[in-house]
Amino acid sequence: MRRFLALFAALAVLALSGCGYNDIQRADETVASSWSEVLNQYKRRSDLIPNLVNTVKGFAAQEQQVLTQVTEARARVGSIQATPELLNDDAAFRRFQDAQANMSSALSRLLVVAENYPQLKSDQNFRDLQAQLEGTENRITVARNRYIKAVQEYNILVRQFPVNLTAMMFAYKVKPNFTVEDEKAIAAPPAVDFGKSPAPAGK
User: Fold this and answer.
1) What residues contact residue 151 under an 8 Å CB cut-off, 6+ apart?
2) Measured between alpha carbons, how far is 84 from 96 in angstroms, rounded to an integer?
3) DSSP conformational letter for 116
4) How do residues 111-168 score in pLDDT, each as one tens digit?
5) Neighbours of 52 (CB within 10 A)
6) Strand locations in 55-186, DSSP E?
7) Residue 187: strand, helix, or coil
C-alpha cells in the first residue's frame, strides 16, 4: 500500500509537471513580484506628494484648486486596497489604474503651475522634490513595463493547450493588464523645463 501511494504521488508529480502546472506557478509568481514593484514605486510617488504640495503652497497658496486636486487624487489612490485579489479582478484593477492615471494628471498640472512662480522654480527644496518625482515616474514606467510583460507571458501560458486544461482545473484565469491607451498617457513622466519662462498670454 505504501509503495502504491508513493508510486501514485510520483506519477501525479510527473503529470502535473508535464501539463504545465509548475510553469503556471512560476509565471504567477513572476506576475506577483512584478506587481509588488509597481506598488512600491507608486507608494514612493505618493510619499513625495505631501512635501511637494506644502512647498508649492508656500509660494503659491492662491493655487488652491490645483493643490486640492492633487490632495484629493492622492486620497483616492490611498482608498483603493491593492490586495493580491485585485490582480484577478478586472473591474478593481481598472479602478486602480484610473486612480493612478488621475494622480499623474493632477501632478502634471501642479508642476505646470510652478512655471508662473519664479521664486518657487528657484527654490532648492522644490527642485529636489521635482527631480525625485521625475526619477520615480521613470521607475514607475520601468516597473509597469515589466509587469505588462509578465502578465502577457502568464496569460499566453494559461490559454495555450494543453496547459489551459490545467489552468481551468486549478482555476487559474487570465489577469487584467494595463491598457495601451493608459500606457501612452503615463509613459512620459511629468516634466517642467525650469530653464524657460512661460510664454506671454496670447502667444
Assistant:
1) 31, 34, 175, 176, 177
2) 13
3) G
4) 998 889 999 989 999 999 999 999 999 999 999 999 999 999 999 999 999 899 999 9
5) 22
6) none
7) helix
Q: Which three cell numbers stand for residue 15?
A: 503529470
Residue from 163, 160, 172, 155 nearest 16 by CA: 163
The pLDDT tens digits of the residues spanning 7-22 come to 444 444 444 445 789 9
**Taking the domain 37-144+180-187, which CATH number applies?**
1.20.1440.20
Is the peptide bond prior to 118 cis by the omega test (within 30 degrees of 0)? no
d(CA 154, CA 30): 9
Residue carrying C-alpha cell 484577478 = 88
The amino acid that residue 10 corresponds to is A
What whole-number distance in Å separates Cα of residue 78 and Cα of residue 66?
Answer: 19
Please state, in angstroms and rounded to a whole number, the distance separating the CA atoms of residues 98 and 163: 32
Residue 2 burial (C-beta neighbours within 10 Å; 0-12, 13-18, 19+):
exposed
Residues in contact with 35: Cβ distance below 8 Å, sequence separation at least 6, in sequence order: 87, 147
φ/ψ of 97, rounded to 5, equals: -60, -45
Q: Where are the domains of the chain?
A: 37-144+180-187
Retrieve residue 172's grid coordinates. Answer: 487559474
**CA–CA gap between residue 70 and residue 68 (Å, rounded):** 5
**pTM of the full predicted structure?**
0.78
Task: Tell me the HSE value of 24 on the side-chain side, using a 13 A CA sphere.
Answer: 24
